[in-house]
Design goal:
The chain is α+β, with helices and mostly antiparallel strands. It folds into two domains: about 10-80; about 90-185, Alpha-Beta Plaits (2-Layer Sandwich), CATH 3.30.70.60. It is built from three helices and four strands, in the order H-H-E-E-H-E-E. The protein has helices at about 10-80, 90-100, 135-145, and strands at about 105-115, 120-130, 150-165, 165-185. The protein has a four-stranded antiparallel beta sheet with strand order 1-2-4-3. Strand 1 (about 105-115) and strand 2 (about 120-130) form a beta hairpin. The longest helix is centred in the first third of the chain and has 74 residues, at about 10-80.
């Protein structure tokens, strides 16, 4: 068999230099960029963890806010029942005339005086004149205040009822403004 010849020293040095160059190329092209990517990924991960820590209390607040929203929606529905979105004039007139008839009142005048625009609601003002005795007038106002819809009586004036030249001792003529409210959306 052929005897192995020793590798010359220059070749060993050249191989060592090539090996070092290969290791340097491997490190500079693979490991060094990977270290930068790892550092960037670690920074991104820590940023996401800090965002998560900030969002956890907000996530807990969402349930509370959803409950509050549900409560406010119920309150809005209840308010819309008491403050309708539309004027509903025919129903309003029927309910007022039926209420006056229930207390044996003579509804002389019911006319629209105008609409006052508000920030959240509109006020519909009606002029009314009724003839009735004092107790029925009081019952009328009491029931008016108990109605589902929110209404207000203002500028009330009462005088003894005079029909021609006859003055009736037990009858009053009541002039007032009835204000009905509608919700503004």
């Amino acid at each position: 068999m052929a005897e192995k010849q020793p590798v010359p020293r220059e070749q060993k040095i050249a191989l060592a230099i090539l090996g070092l160059i290969g290791l340097y190329m491997l490190y500079s092209n693979f490991f060094a960029p990977m270290g930068g990517k790892i550092t960037a990924a670690e920074k991104k991960l820590s940023d996401k963890e800090s965002e998560l820590l900030e969002m956890r209390p907000r996530a807990a607040e969402i349930n509370v806010l959803q409950e509050e929203l549900k409560l406010y929606e119920e309150l809005l529905a209840e308010t819309e029942d008491k403050l309708p979105v539309s004027e509903e004039l025919p129903q309003f007139i029927r309910s007022i005339t039926a209420l006056a008839a229930r207390y044996d009142m003579d509804l002389r005048v019911l006319n629209m005086l105008g609409v006052e625009q508000g920030e959240y609601y509109n006020s519909h003002v009606y002029g009314m004149r009724l003839v009735s005795d004092y107790h029925n007038l009081a019952r009328f106002f009491a029931e008016l205040g108990q109605m589902e819809r929110i209404m207000n009586v203002k500028n009330l004036s009462m005088e003894p009822f005079v029909d021609g030249e006859n003055e009736y001792d037990n009858l009053l003529e009541a002039n007032f403004q009835l204000v009905a409210f509608t919700f503004k959306k």
